[in-house]
């Protein structure tokens, strides 16, 4: 069957079907990908505009960036003093001695406990024994808590001794980070 011998209505239907297929092909291969690309570019433009707006807002709030960076740096140093990256017990011992002298109490002993790894930080338990009056002990606790190192007094046990008050304090000190895992030695079998 030849195309020339077909009735006109079949030719028109074939032409219309061809045009519909050509339109769908054009839409599927050119128009829809172009619209998707334009949508992606518009979304990217909106994201860039929001970043620029955030930068402009930050610039309006902090017109002197050097001054703001210094302020942030100072806050970071205070935070590093409160939560050092290493568990330096010697600094806490020095802080405890200074607080004892300032409060008039006598630091008798300091017994460090085990370190516990928490979620991103370490907690060290310390047991301090001090001698002094009730008010000296409370002043000592206040000075320890107000010190540069972040700590928490969790327990105080007071006992009256002849002529003095003995106080046992359980204090937790904190440090940022978790220590690296120490290498463990495997037992070596004797050579045969």
Task: Write a concise keyword list for the protein shown above.
192 residues, alpha+beta, Alpha-Beta Plaits, four-stranded antiparallel beta sheet, 4 helices, 4 strands
Determine Rg (CA atoms, Å): 38 Å
Task: Indicate the structural class.
Answer: alpha+beta
CATH topology of the domain at 85-176: Alpha-Beta Plaits
Oligomerization state? single chain
Q: How many H/I helical runs?
A: 4
Instruction: Give the DSSP E fraction (strand runs of 2 or more residues).
Output: 15-25%
Just give the CATH class of the domain at 85-176: Alpha Beta
Query: How many strands?
Result: 4
Characterize the biggest β-sheet. 4 strands, antiparallel
Please state the average pLDDT score: 84
Low-confidence spans: pLDDT under 50, at least 5 residues? 182-186
Q: CATH homologous superfamily of the domain at 85-176 - what is it? A: Ribosomal protein S6/Translation elongation factor EF1B
Q: How much helical structure, as a percent, in the residues?
A: 40-55%
Strand order of the largest sheet: 1-2-4-3
Tertiary shape: rod-shaped
CATH architecture designation of the domain at 85-176: 2-Layer Sandwich
> Topology as H/E string?
HHHEEHEE
Distance between the termini: 95 Å
Organism: Anaerosporomusa subterranea
Keywords: Membrane, Transmembrane, Transmembrane helix
Transmembrane segments: 12-34
InterPro entries: PilO, Transl_elong_EF1B/ribsomal_bS6
Describe, in plain words, how this protein is organized in 3D.
The protein has a domain at 85-176: Ribosomal protein S6/Translation elongation factor EF1B (Alpha-Beta Plaits, 2-Layer Sandwich), CATH 3.30.70. It has helices at 8-61, 65-82, 89-103, 134-145, and strands at residues 106-117, 121-131, 151-161, 164-176. A hairpin with a 2-residue loop joins strand 3 (151-161) and strand 4. The relative contact order is 0.10. The protein is α+β, with helices and mostly antiparallel strands and 192 residues long. It has 4 helices and 4 strands, in the order H-H-H-E-E-H-E-E. A 4-stranded antiparallel sheet has the order 1-2-4-3, covered by helices on one side. The termini are far apart. Helix 3 (89-103) packs across helix 4 (134-145). Helices cover 52% and strands 24% of the residues. Keywords: Membrane, Transmembrane, Transmembrane helix.
